[in-house]
Amino acid sequence: MTLQTAGIHHITAFVQDAQRNADFYAGILGLRLVKKTVNFDAPEVYHLYFGNESGTPGTIITFFPSPIGRKGRIGSGMVGVTTYAVPAGSLGFWEERLNTYGISYTTVQRIGETYLSLADYDGLRVELVEREEGPLSAWSFGGIPVEHAIKGFGGAVLYSINPASTEDTLVHTLGFERVAEGDGYVRFRAEGPYGNIIDIKTDPLPFGAGGSGTVHHIAWRAKDDAEQLEWRDFVQSRGFHVTPVQDRNYFNAIYFREEGGILFEIATDPPGFANDEDPDHLGEKLMLPAWYEPHRAEIERNLAPFQVREIEVKAE
């Protein structure tokens, strides 16, 4: 096998409220809203993308906010934890910031690293870990200096119903290297600077149920369209059912479900989020694919407005 993904391209999750979603990921975590669009399959629902200053692959978390969506349950067959990397020496800053804004967290150890473990406003599990590798973010918001800002994904923790099969897919289909085991997890590494550390929990949990506060899928990086087609042929040759290529405007995507129950996507790095907006004004306007533009007025009427804003400090 010669194909090797560089790691995570993006992670996509369900939440209930767009304003609370923006308040947490921009207001608390300091990420940039790099794209405000709609679910291409359900235009009555936003699709929001948060990342570093340009939405570099490996920094992007995306959400489908639906006020009428059911509450999900995190468990096997899904991504259990989304890990963010912060610069070395930054966890103290983040502990103080989380305390300032009344965000509960615990400190946990896993395979020789210290993590701040917390949940977003919908219950999605998030953690922060210090990492030396990966360039600093150039985006500063809400009082977070760039020297402490989230750089991108540190990785993710996968809750598989069949950890051995998921390990086989990571290593023999996606090209990850198995690098460590301990504390009830097996660790894998890819070559990219972001999102390159994946842990699989070795003891399966009860099945999860999709809904707000859970991850829908995790996407892996393909460098371009030609490589993605190679990936499609290779993944299919490994016995998985793979979808045709789907145009997501900011990347192209193929999907398959691995045997541990987790939905995997392989997404192209180009064209990126400046495909239809000025890089200095990403995320400021509702962007629609061409086929929805004739329906813009109706779509905008159905979407509750929200804003990216600084969060007020909780009173003592």
Automatic annotation (TrEMBL):
It comes from the Bacteria. Keywords: Dioxygenase, Oxidoreductase. GO terms for molecular function: dioxygenase activity. Transmembrane segments: none annotated. Residues 7-131, 152-269 form the VOC domain. InterPro entries: Extradiol_RC_dioxygenase, Glyas_Bleomycin-R_OHBP_Dase, Glyas_Fos-R_dOase_dom, VOC_core. The keyword Methyltransferase does not apply. PANTHER family: RING-CLEAVING DIOXYGENASE MHQE-RELATED (PTHR36110:SF2). This is Glyoxalase family protein. It comes from Paenibacillus sophorae.
